[in-house]
Amino acid sequence: MADVEANMKIDDRRKILFTPQRIQKRIREMVTRIEADQQGKELVLVAVLKGSVLFLADLVRAFSRQLAFDFIGVSSYGSSLASLGVVTLEKEISSDIRGKSVLLVDDILDTGRTLGWIKEHLRRFSPQEVKICVLLEKQRPRVIEVQADYIGFRIPDVFVYGYEDKFRHLPYIASLREGEKPPALTGRRKGWRVWGRSTR
Ligand code: 5GP
Ligand code: MG
Question: Of 86, 97, 100, 133, which is most buried by a Cβ count within 10 Å?
């Protein structure tokens, strides 16, 4: 892994926030709570592509009960000043969630646009309920008011990477050091577009 990281030229900027052990321990704690809350309900996890896929896999394996999972894909654009931004559906869910208990799973709750839009979108399929589970919740004002029901860790409003989309092979979550700009910053406002097209 050291070579891979060196190639990314991010080693010296790395500040590890959550180790693999801490992430896995927290996931087990979250699942214990989810299982207690969801007793007797038919549970479907709906994961937001692609950033939450690793989190979903670890969540699912921590469960000791039967459940189903599905995926939804969206792109969101727009500055934080625009109250709505633009969210477009790229991949619709493919299972029947009518009357079921849905747990919407994403890696990070940031502006709230993504999860706010998806939660509203899923209502058209008449689930019994939609709860939200995120690994990280950024402490910043939401553009769209969304409350997560299950939160792994609360973090300040910093750009983080690892255990997600572009750097999904990294088992830890890191942030850039304070004042440090992400490498090869293209001038776009959102740091995670730095490494190419937004693939969240
Ligand atoms: P929101 O719609 O809440 O602004 O954005 C949520 C999505 O943006 C998350 O699913 C995540 O993929 C992406 N995102 C937000 N902040 C970060 C970050 O600091 N690092 C990375 N890698 N992705 C982020
Ligand atoms: Mg995402």
Answer: 133
What's the topology of domain 19-156?
Rossmann fold (3.40.50)
Tell me the pLDDT tens digit for each residue of 1-49: 444 344 344 444 568 899 999 999 999 999 999 999 999 999 999 999 9
Spell out the domain ranges in the chain: 19-156
Q: Cα(56)–Cα(36) distance, rounded to whole angstroms? A: 18
pTM of structure? 0.83
Residues with CB under 6 A from ligand 1: 48, 51, 76, 106-114, 159-161, 164-165, 192, 200
Q: Nearest residue CA, atom 19 of ligand 1?
A: 159
Residue 74 has pLDDT above 90, yes or no: yes
Which residue is closest in CA terms to ligand 1's atom 9?
108
